[in-house]
Each structure stands twice: as structure tokens, then as C-alpha cells.
Amino acid sequence: MTFAVAISAIYWTATASVPEYDQIIEREPEAVEQDLQQFESQLAALYSDAQKRPDWSTVVTAGQINAWLARRWTNDYPRLKAAGVDDPRVLIRGEDVTLAFRVDRSWIDAVATIGVRPFLSDEGELGVEMLNAHVGRAAMPLARLAALLEDALMRYQLPVRWAQTDGHPTLLVNVPLVASDDDQQRRLEALELRDGEIYLSGSTVDSNAEPDDAASDDIESDDAASGDATESGPSAE
Predict the structure, then answer these.
(1) How would you list the strands of the sheet with 55-61, edge to edge?
(2) Bias category Acidic residues: which stretches (predicted)?
């Protein structure tokens, strides 16, 4: 009897709902559609600015990101869903960011949450340091959820790599590779978290332009906030 109660308690803890996540999932369709249109309009404007202007910036809200995830995830990334990562959402409170998604695997069906710290590396990569992880109300080893995400992302052969930051699994996205082309080099230079918002800014230079010595020196000496990520897999204790 005691064993059965213990198993039931463990199962309840792991599968318990996450109220904030549930509220986001249950948003009114009209509100989601409005945020989606705003988000895609801002992305189109940012794309245009990044092609025509040397400096560009934008501010996006968690609501807009979540609207895009709600409408585009299943259609655009079916292999991630097949890997067991479904209905992802983002929660931003001040400088605290939480990634939440449903884990749908043979061993469990529950909501996973990962506390993360986004940053820019010295190489201009977008870093996402994973600080803690839970499935339902139960703490989860970071390595297990990181491995789940690694398996899902590998299906798309995205320009990402895994490293360690202070012992935490860290995902690094090669933004210059994704955003640049043969004619222009684009670099993400600032990322700021505000309450419910993310501010991004960057620059574009002609690939054929002669490098400016002073600007090059500034870039090399720039020690803007970034994680000291070391190359590694996603494992963590």
C-alpha cells in the first residue's frame, strides 16, 4: 500500500500542471492571431532593415513569440513534435526566461520547464544557458532534457552546437551563418530582456567592403556580457 501511494505521489508530481503554461496555451484565438500578425510584420520589417541599413533593431514580446509557436510549430517543425517536443512556449519575467513545452514520450506525458539565460558570445552566437529543469513539479536532471532537445534539433541539421557554461548545458546558435549571405554579413550585437519583451539589435556590412581597422580593434577588444561557454555535449550533473 505504501509503495502504491509513493508511486502515485511521484506520478502526480511529475504530471502536475503548470498554471502559467496552461494560461498561455488557453489564450483566445483572436488574441493569438493578432499577436501573430504583429510578429510576422515586425520580422518582415526587420528583414528589410537588415538588408538596407547598417544598423537595425526590434522589440518582440513573449506574447508574439508564443503566438508564432502556437500557429507555426506543428506545420513547420513536425519532426520536433515527433521527437517528443510539443507546444513550446516562452515565459519572460524581468530578466528571468523560462522555456516550457509538453514532453510526449513513452515514459511520460507532462509539461517540462527549463530556466534559461540567453546571452551573446564573443563570436556573435546566440547562447542559451540552461539553469534548471522540471517536469511537472519534479526537478529533472538538465542532461536528460538537454539530450531530448539535442535529439530533436539534430533532425533539422540546424547550425547549432552544444557547450558548457559553468557546468550547465548551453545551446549556441550561429547567428552570422543563419543571417548572412554572399553579399552581406549580419551580426547580432545586443540582446536585452525586459519585462515580457526581448530587445535585439545588430549590424550589416557589405561582404566586399574593406574592413575598418578601428572598428576591427573595437570588436576584438569588446568584452560585452557573454557566457564563458566551452565546447562540449549537453550533459550536466
Answers:
(1) 55-61, 197-206, 184-194
(2) 209-225
